[in-house]
Amino acid sequence: MKIVGISGSIVGSKTRTAMDVTIKILKEKYPHIDVTLLDLADFQIQFSDGRNYLDYEGDTKYVAQTVMDADALILGTPIFQASIPATLKNIFDLLPEKAFQDKVVSMVVTAGSAKHFLIPEQQLKPILSYMKAQIVQTYVYIEEKDFFRKAIVNDDILFRLERLVEDTVMLTETFAKIREAAYDF
Amino acid sequence: MMMKKYRLDPAKGLEFGLYTLGDHLANPYTGDRISAQKRLQEIIEMAKLAEQAGLDFFSVGESHQEYFATQAHSVVLAAIAQATSKIKIGSSSTIISTSDPVRVYEDFATIDLISDGRCEIICGRASRVGLFELLGYNLRDYEELFEEKFDLLLKINEEEVINWSGEFRAPLKNAKVIPRPKNGYLPIWRAVGGTPASAIKAGYAGVPMFMAHLGGPASVFKRTIDAYREAAREGGHDPSKLPVATAGFFYVAETTQEALKEYYPHINEGMKRTNGRGFPKQLWAQGADTRSIMNVGSPQQIIEKILYQHEMFGHQRYIAQLDFGGVPFDKIRKNIEIIGTEILPAIRKYTAKKEGETE
């Protein structure tokens, strides 16, 4: 099983911190899973111009291909201007319409305050649904006050991240088994 | 229904053909990929087998990216023209956007003469776009390049002496594009994906339409065909004189389950490599239903499907893609054999006009 984490912003450190913690939990609990973290700040990715993702080159192709090859995705995103950052939206725009079919997708969200709690519900989930993802319904919403110097200091958040990781893996395994059992080809 | 201009006689029933995209992929069961040379030879051999089995049409596509072998598809067609004597041949498709219409017409008119009047052109816009960079074109001109060059190609087909100017090619002044095809005219089709949007363009221009389809219910594609005929009517053309052809996956085995099972890894792995996404199993499994557009199944199931589609679409030709994703040649041979002995006779029997029957 391949799980890819995405740190969806090139600004700040909170989303990366949250994703580092998430990936650490994932690797410790499931050492057999092939895990990759893509921090968008580490890549030069061009804006989508509508071509098939296979026709891009360099970082753009690498990131798109890595996402497409995953069985599950854990998306880390901050909230910018009451929405997801353009960098993350661009990843979606680079991919085919039904890119997340047969993939499980879960979300880790960072934000300055509780004011934007419903943004992932109302803006991110519809995109993922449109792209045919099996969404892990519960996301982990992490506020400014839960961080201190690039660490998460709220145990409740850590517990919730553990549960998110477990749900992601369990659903991915389960859906794979169901598909396996349902068809003889 | 007069379609002589397109060398079609609907009274003889639905035409049946084969097409290859010229993909060059490993057989997913063994992981082995034959050489490009061997693949090209097999494509020519496939055309010969199609002719021997009594099929009406064989065509070869142009793709310039990795995992394809027929970039020079007109050259392959020339070889097929020489290797066969009855079967109609064509391109599926020619990417006119990144070629010079004059050269394309010269090539295909020549193939028409070599083949004694059997050649056709199907023009498409390309689903992958690496060839724009390879051949020196700007992807931002994707639509305009196609429309302008396709128009010029149609004009060359209609007029022996051309006066033309446009944005993407040097102007033509009293230019004679020669040789002319055997009967002075080549059937030229517009390739269309499943959506009504580009079908409307073909209809409005009064150009025959070749519609490609992957999966899903046939009724969805009926909307595209309806939109095409409606646009033709609005454009001042008589839709009953404009042929419609369909193109899609085909695979026959003893039982429908066997056919689905055998072909799936070829399609799934092949599409991953050439299109970036595999074929969803759910959609594939629904291919067993008679109402699905995918002609994969037992001979009887395929006959029923094609007749169902013909009744719904009223189309003049169906072409089958049965070699995608590294299908071994003995399976290709077996498929063609079953088409010739079981499927084709039934299709012709039920779609040909009986004596005395009128339109």
Keywords:
heterodimer, A: 185 residues, alpha/beta, Rossmann fold, 6-stranded parallel beta sheet, 5 helices, 41% helix, globular, B: 359 residues, TIM Barrel, 8-stranded parallel β-barrel, two-stranded antiparallel sheet, 11 helices, 12 strands, 16% strand
Q: What does this molecule look like?
A:
- The complex is a heterodimer of chains A (185) and B (359).
- Chain A is 41% helix and 18% strand.
- Chain A has 185 residues and is an alpha/beta fold.
- Chain A has a single domain (2-182), classed as Flavodoxin domain (Rossmann fold, 3-Layer(aba) Sandwich), CATH 3.40.50.
- In chain A, strands 1, 2, 3, 4, 5 and 6 form a 6-stranded parallel beta sheet that branches.
- In chain A, helix 1 (14-29) packs across helix 5 (155-182).
- The mean pLDDT of chain A is 97.
- Chain B has 359 residues and is an alpha/beta fold.
- Chain B has one domain (4-351): Luciferase-like domain (TIM Barrel, Alpha-Beta Barrel), CATH 3.20.20.
- Chain B has helices spanning 36-52, 73-83, 101-114, 130-134, 142-158, 196-205, 218-234, 256-275, 281-286, 299-313, 329-351; strands at residues 15-20, 57-60, 88-91, 94-95, 119-124, 161-164, 172-176, 188-192, 209-213, 244-252, 295-297, 317-321.
- In chain B, the strands form 2 sheets. In chain B, strands 1-2-3-5-8-9-10-12 form an 8-stranded parallel barrel, surrounded by 9 helices.
- Chain B starts with 14 loop residues before the first strand and ends in an 8-residue tail after the last helix.
- Classes of the chains: A alpha/beta (185), B alpha/beta (359).
- The interface between A and B is medium-sized, with 17 and 18 residues.
Short synopsis of the structure:
The complex is a heterodimer of chains A (185) and B (359). By secondary structure, chain A is α/β, with parallel strands linked by helices. Chain A has helices at residues 14-29, 58-68, 86-94, 119-130, 155-182; strands at residues 2-7, 34-39, 72-78, 104-111, 134-135, 140-143.
